[in-house]
Amino acid sequence: MSMAVVGMIAGMALAFAGYFGGFGAFLLVAALGAVGFIVGRFLDGDLEPGDFFRSRGRGDGRPR
Q: Could you read off the pLDDT of 47-61 as tens digits, one per residue?
């Protein structure tokens, strides 16, 4: 399935949530979709747990 089709399906799900459930449901569906996307990337091997916990400092792990 191409990314365009996945994007279209996600957009339609958000549109239905916003129309039938209001803005709160729209935000809930968007947030859960983002979490699902990150978990999917993690399970596919595109992300590693260290990517979320690495410091943005000098890169050697010591504080400035």
A: 777 777 766 665 555
Exposure b/e, 33-48, CB count within 10 A at least 16 = b = eeeeeeeeeeeeeeee
**To which residue do tokens 């089709």 refer?**
5
Q: Does the model's pTM come out above 0.70? A: no
Q: Which residue has the tokens 């999917």?
A: 40
Question: Domain range for residue 26?
Answer: 1-43
Give the count of domains, the chain: 1
Take residue 5 and report the two structure tokens written for it: 């089709």
